[in-house]
């Protein structure tokens, strides 16, 4: 049985540049024959995403639209646009998160209310808002995949307010899986190892974590955007049709260590 995504339409939210995990997911899906739609946040992202997508064979007519996930009306408009142009969709890759850089280092205690709510709003609630807007336009067998990190399950120095947001995201995955299961829509997360992306630059001492990772992870090596992409491809394919509410670690086994 092949991965069978060649007749599926999947929305990839959160590509920033070619090092984005979202781009690793997009290229894995693209190579397996899926039809892709991209959303980005912020005008300054448009040019970069458009250029990346145009580089794909047939990318010229791929839909690339803005979607600021802090606005419910914008989410509704974005998915209504997609529905009008493409009909029903089969999947959503939610690769969106943000927290204020000053709160991604030092003590978690210095998190303020505004920063806490911002991280929750963009990095956690946005999955629920997107699932809500898309549920009636997803085909049976649909699949939603989001990205998380070990710091949402246990303390990872400096991850702080984003860790609390990822804990919220991971709990949301389970509650959404429970609600959407009867409609045949699955919801899962991928917990990726420390991959060097534009976002990773915002987390304090990122390089120190990567060093420990290479020295201690069972596979003794970093993971790549492509490896996360392959796991996402599995989660969008019927090969994972029995899996929902799950969090799959693509982290060289690092999460098994104390
Ligand atoms: C100390 C932990 C080291 C490993 C971190 C791995 C990781 C890397 C990137 C991750 O994604 C984000 C996304 C946004 C984010 O917030 C940012 C990023 C850049 C600038 C800024 O002002 N905020 C921080 C991390 C993420 O959730 C997890």
UniProtKB/TrEMBL annotation:
NAD(+) binds at residues 14, 20-21, 68-69, 96, 166, 195-199. One of its GO terms (molecular function) is enoyl-[acyl-carrier-protein] reductase (NADH) activity. It is an enzyme of class 1 (oxidoreductase). The keyword NAD applies. PANTHER family: ENOYL-[ACYL-CARRIER-PROTEIN] REDUCTASE, ENOYL-[ACYL-CARRIER-PROTEIN] REDUCTASE [NADH], CHLOROPLASTIC. NCBIfam families: PRK08594.1. This is Enoyl-[acyl-carrier-protein] reductase [NADH]. It comes from Pradoshia eiseniae. The lineage of its organism: Bacteria, Bacillati, Bacillota, Bacilli, Bacillales.
